[in-house]
Amino acid sequence: MSYIPYARRLLAVLTLSSLTLAAQAADFTVAYQTTVDPAKVAQADGAYEKASKSEIDWRKFDGGAEVITAVASGDVQIGYVGSSPLAAAATRQLPIQTFLIATQIGAAEALVARNGSNIGKPEDLIGKKVAVPFVSTGHYSLLAALKHWNIDPTKVQILNLAPPAIISAWKRGDIDATYVWDPALGVAKENGKVLITSGELSELGAPTFDAWIVRKDFAEKHPEIVRAFAKVTLDAYADYRKDPKAWLANQDNIAKLVKLSGAKAEDIPLLLQGNVFPLAADQATALGAPTTQAITDTARFLKEQGKVDAVLPDYTPYVSNQYVTN
Question: Of 34, 33, 45, which is closest to residue 250 (Cα–Cα)?
Answer without folding.
Answer: 45
